[in-house]
Amino acid sequence: MKFLLVFDFDHTIIDENSDTWIVKCAPERKLPNGLRNSYQPGHWTEYMGRVFVYLGDNGVKEDEMKRTMTTIPFTAGMIDLLGFIGENKELFDCIIVSDSNTVFIDWILKAADFHKVFDEVFTNPAAFSSTGYLTVQHFHAHHCVKCPKNLCKRKVLKEFLDKQLERGVSYTQIVYIGDGGNDLCPVMFLKKNDIAMPRQGYTLEKRISQLAQSLSPVQCSVLVWSSAIDIMSYLKLLIKE
Questions:
Q1: Quick check: keyword Hydrolase in the entry (predicted)?
Q2: What is the C-alpha separation between 74 and 79, in angstroms, rounded?
């Protein structure tokens, strides 16, 4: 009996968007209009690359960015949930699939001492250049028309499951916890025995209910959460069974 927990990061583990939170480091805590308006749908990673150049140009250093990022609040109940998962690691494999980046997620998880809860983190690779600028790259290339250019979470999940099967690991159930539009693609990949846990009032919940209304519902069960305590209650029932 082993369960796979798949977490999104922004607005799921943390209660904010890490990419927009970093703007607190900018002069006057805002971006110039030209930069703000340069975002094109599906090309968020490129947009963030320009934001990081702007921050670097304005002398924002790594330690200041790190200090700012580690002040992001966790979602209600999330600290309890991650603590619970950490205590029951023999039952749960736990991964993050996120459109944030490796630097931000690493800083936040390590500052709160939660990095050991997660077996793997799949997100856009980021690093500081020799000149001290943060750079970010696409996670992978894919052919999915539903997803942003840099990341198809379904592809990540499928490849992870295939690799685990090669190692002889299969899961009794997959629990997918997320909030955003880009979480719908992996949720549609889940099977009847799996469960999607969309955050209440966010895009993923709305998209799942739209699918149900158009009579093409997702195959998996759906359980909406507003606090991570709701997720913990479900996991406690799961391991009692």
A1: yes
A2: 7
